[in-house]
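Ticket #4471: structure output looks truncated?

Reporter: J.K.
Steps to reproduce: submitted the chain below (332 residues) through the standard prediction queue, then opened the result file.
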Amino acid sequence: MLAGESMLLIVRKFFSIPADKPELALAQFSAFQRQVPLMYLMLVANTVALSLTHAGLAPWQLTVGAPSILYLLCGYRLVGWVVRRKQVVTAEAAIARLRGTLRFTVVLGVGFTAWAFSLYGYGGDLEKGHVAFYMAITIIGCIFCLMHLRASAVLLVFIVLGPYVVFFASTGVEVFQMIAVNVLLVSAALLFILQIYYTDFANLIASRKEIQAQQQEAQRLSEENLRLANLDSLTGLHNRRWFVTALERRLAAAESASERLAIGMIDLDGFKPVNDAYGHGVGDKVLIEIGRRLSLAAEREGLKSPASAATNSASSCTIPPPTRPRSTQRRV
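Returned output as attached by the reporter:
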């Protein structure tokens, strides 16, 4: 009982679109979206050809009526894919549309297979051979078009190939029996290749996701290291290294624009006695509070705090404001 349930779960997983791999679903959707027009055009072209060879031999309901319904179904799906081709699709939407394709595979597979079998009884050996050729070449073409959507490809093979082999093997015609065997072997080889390709495709998407995560982490660490290298850990203000770089940049900008540059410098008188009397812990708190007030003052002056305030030492801070036109400068 447990073995049967486990096998059922494996089969369901194999013929489903997993929701726990959104990156894979988006990649499948993007690749399949480019192949959809080719697949439906191939289906319609092959069906038109088979209808024409049976025109006058089979009833119009089979050569015109039934194919027209299949054309409409293919056209409806084709237009839907083409119209939404340039839309930005979320992972949830991609999964929903791929699952819709999986369900529609059953409809089209059953429809085209039943229609082709219904034409077999009309015409001579050439027409019957065309039916066998139509089904074989169409299923092979669909497998290639569905290579990025393994579940649909395998499901279509089971829907079409099983009845195909049984039907033509039971005709008693040796040629059709050999054709059935050949198509079965070719389809089995294609499924094997499909499985390898899909596995490699899924692994590629997973590795790309891992590489992107590593790049993001490396970028985050680089930005954090840069921030720490230019930041005073105690006050939260930028350090001397940042100040020198910013000052050089602003001096160059002021010189090129023939503008003046003002630099404010604050010295903390009597700071050493605070450390001597109350200890470095209290001295650190004083520096932290000074840094906070400098940041607030910079904000009030319209500067970008704390990027416009920097600490040069344990007892002094410097504020290099951006360059201003001479007409707007004011004395402090």
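Triage note (M.O.): checked the attachment and the full token line is present. The chain has two domains: 2-206, 240-328.
Status: closed, working as intended.
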